């Protein structure tokens, strides 16, 4: 049976600045990575050198047959010291936007993807007095370079940011971040909600722009008798962030696996097939996440799948996962859910927040020469995009 996607559907791939650019020396995470006793095993370093090689990366996206590219602007580069905006960095990101237009690609621009300037964290971060106002000022500084951009993600995965803040405050570490994290630091969550709304107010003056944020959908499922516990887990860790999007121009769905909640919390199915991140191989998570999001935000808010993929060293497994995920996405769309595009995570094998081991990329990157090598899964995905069919 052939599955057909609508004309105008966005087919793309995604990256984030810190994970691919390299030498993000003014960011808070760079400071963490390069501390005398770092809490992460590996450094980002030169990353994929996409700060210099972005034209090559855009050529790859175009040549594969994709029509969209999601990337992020790095706040720490644009404002390396408080109140001092770098015109050169603004021009750099504008060139990337224009590079997308020149290649017929729709840019999906993220304004904040996990990292902040080191000075922002030192000043108290999101919950400090004036924290939200500082983010508003940063967003305002970007307005001149966002001309013509239709899709803008304000903040990437605010629920993960708030949960990580709670985890660090408690001095905890959880390897399986998909489900075993504590509830979010609510003060941080509230500040991020305020920052998102401030950003949307600033972006509202740009003609044609659609703004929203992206949520890490954890596809919570209840074990027998644990329906109440699951609802509580879902509300604090996901649903309160989805509900914020009820009046937004779109909501970004980011799904990788499911989390099964038992009476005592998350259950780890030891016998389940696992990915390189230790998460369950569960491509059906995308359909579940899209359906759950649509129920929370309502049918008037379009959905954009801003991340979906698998960490695997077996490229055939990437095709298997993506084919199943897209089949489920098509079922949800056939039932009337308004999904405007699918952006695969990730374009490149990149720095995964402390480790280079999980390889999510459609394209491998030589760590010494930065040579890009297109994987068979990328060519398969490109053919799906060109034809609009599975």
CATH architecture classification name: Alpha-Beta Barrel
What would you give as the CATH superfamily? Answer: Glycosidases
How many DSSP H or I helices?
A: 13
Which stretches of 5+ consecutive residues score pLDDT under 50?
none
CATH class: Alpha Beta
The 3D shape can be described as: globular
- Based on secondary structure, the structural category is alpha/beta
- Percent strand equals 15-25%
- Work out the count of structural domains: 1
CATH fold description? TIM Barrel
- In helices, the fraction of residues equals 25-40%
Notes on the structure:
It holds the Pfam family Glyco_hydro_1. This is Beta-glucosidase. Belongs to the glycosyl hydrolase 1 family. With 390 residues, the protein is α/β, with parallel strands linked by helices. Helices cover 39% and strands 16% of the residues. It has helices at 17-20, 28-33, 50-64, 75-78, 87-102, 118-122, 131-142, 158-169, 186-203, 227-243, 285-297, 315-334, 376-387, and strands at residues 10-14, 68-72, 106-110, 151-156, 210-217, 220-222, 251-255, 259-262, 265-267, 303-307, 339-345, 363-365, 372-374. The strands form three sheets. Strands 1-2-3-4-5-7-10-11 form an eight-stranded parallel beta barrel, surrounded by six helices. It has a three-stranded mixed beta sheet with strand order 6-8-9, covered by helices on one side. Strands 12-13 form a two-stranded antiparallel sheet. The model has no long low-confidence stretch (mean pLDDT 96).
């Amino acid at each position: 049976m052939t599955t057909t996607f609508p004309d105008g559907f966005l087919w793309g791939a995604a990256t984030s600045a810190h994970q691919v650019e390299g030498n993000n020396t003014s960011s808070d995470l760079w400071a963490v990575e390069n501390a005398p006793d770092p809490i992460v095993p590996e450094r980002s370093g030169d990353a994929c050198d996409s700060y210099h090689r972005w034209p090559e990366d855009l050529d790859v996206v175009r040549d594969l047959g994709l029509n969209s590219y999601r990337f992020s602007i790095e706040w720490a580069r644009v404002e390396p010291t408080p109140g001092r905006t770098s015109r050169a960095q603004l021009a750099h990101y504008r060139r990337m936007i224009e590079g997308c237009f020149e290649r017929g690609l729709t840019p999906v621009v993220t304004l904040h993807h996990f990292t902040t300037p080191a000075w922002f964290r030192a000043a108290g971060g999101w919950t400090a007095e004036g924290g939200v106002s500082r983010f508003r000022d940063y967003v305002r500084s970007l307005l001149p370079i966002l001309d013509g951009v239709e899709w803008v993600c304000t903040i990437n995965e605010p629920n993960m940011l708030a949960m990580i803040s709670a985890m660090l405050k408690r001095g905890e570490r959880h390897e399986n971040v998909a489900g075993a994290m504590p509830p979010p630091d609510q003060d941080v969550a509230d500040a991020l909600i305020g920052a998102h709304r401030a950003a949307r107010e600033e972006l509202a003056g740009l003609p044609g722009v659609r703004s929203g944020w992206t949520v890490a959908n954890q596809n919570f499922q209840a074990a027998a008798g644990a329906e109440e516990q699951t609802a509580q887990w879902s509300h604090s860790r996901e649903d309160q962030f989805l509900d914020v999007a009820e009046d937004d121009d779109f909501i970004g769905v980011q799904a990788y696996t499911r989390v099964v909640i038992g009476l005592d919390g998350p259950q780890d199915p030891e016998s389940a097939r696992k990915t390189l991140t230790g998460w369950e191989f569960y491509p059906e998570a995308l359909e579940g996440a899209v359906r759950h999001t649509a129920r929370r935000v309502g049918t008037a808010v379009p959905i954009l799948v801003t991340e979906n993929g698998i960490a695997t060293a077996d490229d055939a497994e990437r095709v298997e996962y993506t084919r199943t995920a897209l089949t489920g996405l098509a079922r949800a769309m056939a039932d009337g859910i308004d999904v405007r595009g699918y952006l695969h995570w990730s374009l490149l094998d990149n720095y995964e927040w402390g480790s280079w081991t999980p390889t999510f990329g459609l394209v491998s990157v030589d760590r010494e020469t930065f040579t890009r090598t297109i994987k068979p899964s990328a060519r398969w995905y490109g053919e799906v995009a060109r034809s609009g069919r599975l």
